[in-house]
Design a protein that fits this description.
Elements lengths: L3 E6 L7 E6 L2 E5 L1 E3 L23 E4 H6 L3 H6 L2 H6 L5 E4 L2 H6 L6 E2 L2 E5 L6 E4 L1 H11 L3 E3 L11 H24 L8 E6 L5 H14 L3 E4 L8 H12 L7 E4 L5 H9 L4 E3 L2 H7 L2 E4 L2 E4 L19 H4 L4 H9 L4 H26 L3 H11 L24
Parallel strand pairs: 4-14, 5-6, 6-10, 10-11, 11-12, 12-13, 13-14
Antiparallel strand pairs: 1-2, 2-3, 7-8, 8-9, 15-16
This protein binds zinc ion.
């Protein structure tokens, strides 16, 4: 069997230690996937990944469809060739990104009509097209196209998203079976929606489990809700998922969210947070966040994180120089801090796995809670308003 999730330790809804087997190798879980949305890490060569302990990478099918196009990625050897990465790859179907483009009011029965992000004009991004694109991109794990609501507290919107998500999940599950299932070397994961409503999450999870996916994701989180609501949504999803399948929490990546989601039975994560924070001069450390633009770092000759063995910290570039470089819009500080942050999260997940194996997870969880207290979400950008039953625009 090409895919298998071995649960080494843990239960259905508590913290778990596992091993995910794919045609491109194994992933020790809990694990964090760096994000290569357009088929490459932003600013880093793929050679930095193995030494920092990365075992799986995420790319985005919708973005690769838009540019360079499926045929080109195929010619480059699929998504593994494009990434120059021979380990496991997961592609997101693009649901979240499509809806980030403000397409929520352009969902119709058969898909979502969205503006082409590169060439303009209209793309009908359907479950069939998302499935076929990922089949040809050839990642180890493909995700179903789902509907990702932008207001998790709006019950009508959440219920409608679950209904569409399930209808599309059935279509994609049938296509997966028609093409030989995971035996052909690609797994397909379902995505649990339902906003902050436990009953909707339960209904969605149960129906997806009945469809028997190779693994399950928790979607529709980290869209503006606070930490407590986010974790309630996670818990209301994982508790219905089968114990012997991988669970993946989409788009979550602060240390607190990672550890708290792991405590609720999540095995896999991805997020742009570490690299984005790095590009905006924020370093993640065991002493909390460091905002390098802060004036107190101006004359600071110490390395970024004196306790960190990563290449960026070992490069010797002092905090004061990083601050000056950020101010001068140099590229190097962005790359160094982003590389350090990627290392920090890999190191955190390694510590989590060791703590789970050694029976010390609760101690580590407490330390992360102290270092990374929850922060209220900032103001949300204005998004297109949701109109249930809205028809797609005419071409
Ligand atoms: Zn470092």
């Amino acid at each position: 069997m090409a895919f298998r999730f071995d649960l080494i330790q843990g239960s259905a809804s508590g913290p778990r230690l596992g091993r995910f087997h794919t045609p491109h190798g194994e992933v020790r879980t809990p694990a964090f996937m760096p994000v290569a949305t357009r088929g490459m890490l932003r600013g880093h060569p793929p050679t930095i990944l193995r030494p920092m302990g990365v075992e799986m990478v995420l790319a985005n099918a919708f973005h690769l469809y838009a540019r360079p196009g499926i045929e080109t990625v195929e010619a480059l050897g699929g998504v593994h060739g494009m990434l120059a990465w021979d380990g496991p790859v997961l592609t997101d179907s693009g649901g979240f990104q499509v809806f980030s483009l403000g397409a929520l009011d352009r969902v119709h029965e058969g898909g979502v009509r969205v503006e082409h992000p590169v060439y303009g004009g209209v793309v009908d991004w359907t479950p069939e097209l998302a499935f076929e694109s990922q089949r040809r991109l050839a990642p180890d794990v493909a995700m179903v196209l789902d509907v990702c609501p932008d207001r998790p507290g709006d019950r009508d919107q959440a219920a409608w998203a679950v209904e569409r998500t399930l209808a599309w999940a059935r279509t994609q599950r049938r296509l997966h079976e028609k093409h030989g299932g995971s035996g052909r070397g690609q797994a397909l994961f379902g995505i649990v929606q339902g906003g902050v409503f436990p009953d909707l999450r339960e209904a969605c999870a149960r129906e997806l489990v009945a469809l028997d996916f190779d693994g399950y994701a928790v979607g529709g989180v980290s869209v503006g809700e606070d930490h407590a609501a986010r974790m309630a949504g996670v818990e209301a999803s994982t508790c219905w998922l089968p114990v012997d399948r991988l669970r993946y929490l989409m788009g979550v990546g602060t240390p607190l969210d990672l550890v708290e989601a792991i405590a609720r039975g999540v095995d896999l994560f991805d997020c742009v947070f570490p690299t984005r924070a790095g590009r905006f001069a924020t370093a993640l450390t065991w002493k909390g966040r460091l905002h390098l633009l802060n004036a107190r770092f101006r004359d600071d000759a110490s390395p970024l994180d004196p306790d960190c063995p990563c290449e960026a910290c070992q490069s010797g570039v002092p905090r004061g120089a990083l601050r000056a470089g950020f101010k001068a819009r140099e590229i190097l500080p962005m790359l160094l801090v982003s590389q350090h942050n990627l290392f920090f999260l890999q190191d955190l997940l390694r510590r989590v796995r060791e703590a789970l194996a050694g029976g010390r997870f609760e101690e580590l969880r407490e330390e992360v809670r102290c270092r990374w207290p929850p922060r209220e979400p900032g103001p949300r950008p204005e998004r297109a308003r949701f109109k249930p039953g809205a028809r797609p625009p005419r071409r």
